[in-house]
Specification:
Radius of gyration: 29 Å
Keywords: Copper, Membrane, Metal-binding, Signal, Transmembrane, Transmembrane helix
Number of strands: 10
Mean pLDDT: 75
CATH topology of the largest domain: Immunoglobulin-like
Structural class: alpha+beta
Domain CopC: 48-140
Largest sheet: 6 strands, mixed
Number of helices: 3
Main location: other
Organism: Aeromicrobium fastidiosum
InterPro entries: CopC/D (IPR032694), CopC_dom (IPR007348), Cu-Rt/internalin_Ig-like (IPR014755), Ig_E-set (IPR014756)
Helix content: 25-40%
Length: 192
Amino acid sequence: MAVPSSSRWRHWLWRCDRLGVVRNNLLLRGIVLVTAALVLGAGPASAHAALVGTDPEDGSTLAAAPSSITFTFNENVSRRAQVAVAAPDGSQVKVTGVRGLDNTVSAKLADVGQRGTYSASYRVVSADGHPVTGTIAYDVSAGRTVTQVAGPKQEDFIHRHSSHLFWGILAAVVAIVLLLAPLRRRNDPDAA
């Protein structure tokens, strides 16, 4: 088989590359449109459940320890929820009957008879399947005085959304590679 002359070979490559660029351009435009639709259109659908109220309220002062606690969210959450309450001395309050129903999670609490700040933590799974955690605090003014112990802090934004950050960066890298690949082929005379 004879090898085409240099000018014929370049012309043949130019025609193939031209058709390939057209196909790649259409594919690239489609990928960019789908990616943009997923990223820009997923705002409300991917929102996590947010705490809108509690009983007792966050930061409230109570005359006596509550017998139950209720968390209310802006959307339905899974029935399997976790609630933990820390007493002022750092010990765990006995929590029973944790129950999720629609957009509320409630639990019964044992009275430990301590005055001070209690911290109540929750973990639920929102309607979009993502876990949501948080902590509230309330004071009980009746009972015996106990030295305050710092309760658990809420996770920071980056920690809660690290998987979103990872997938966003990965999508950006893939998009850049797909955008630059046709340009590299066009500028490379040895590409076949």
